[in-house]
Amino acid sequence: MLRRPLIYLACLVWAPVALALEDPKTQLKDPMKSGMWDYHQIELLGDPENIRFDDRVIVRGPESAEDSLNVPLLVDASGIKNVKRIIVSADYGPIPHILTYYPEKAEPKIGLRFKIDQATAIRASVETHDGQWLIGSTYIDAAGGGCTAPAHAYASDDWEEKLGEIHGRLWAASGRARVIVDHPMDTGLSDGIPVFIIQNLSFESDEGDLMARVELYEPVNEDPAFSLYFEPGTLGGTLHVKGRDNNGNRINGVLSESETH
Hints:
The protein is mainly beta. It folds into two domains: 1-30; 35-256, SoxY domain (Immunoglobulin-like, Sandwich). It has four helices and 15 strands.
């Protein structure tokens, strides 16, 4: 005798949920329609009241990752003023946080490479100095396995001697810098290999002014590679690269207009 009233009550409870899921406004909240974004936006960004999607945050990557260990990505928020930081993340990564970029005196634009573990939405979350979060997204298909593979560096007998070496080049006239740092960037997800990553890099002028800085997390690729962008005339002839990894190893090098090795 109670079955019909219970079924009726269940319909009353679930009906608003079903209507909400069919509501176009609900579906358009996230252009990627990802099941993990609501969780990650709170974990990574905080108060969701200050979050909105914005086409001015451009995220460019391949439609499909040819190499799951080195996926190229360009994040460009140069159409937004007063950018404080940019958080790059993967919705369906075992470690979602890829990096955080603080442009400081650079443009809010960065090229990077990262490891991908499966097909996923990739986000760039831009925080402005007034506390707003503006989100850009793209989707990258992948066979996976990038985050669980051991570093290639260990195949070389002299990898420890090269640890932390800086490579790259500076183009002062056009305001661009390319930097590569030798480091295994182990995620800790391979059997018997602990986490071993660069935690931070800063980029300074000859005078010691902080030009930009980046916080790195496990999904950043082995031998991290970054392209940084500045207003023409902002850079001098050299850019000092400083940082450290989670084992306390220091990184210290200089980029110049002649190729650095």
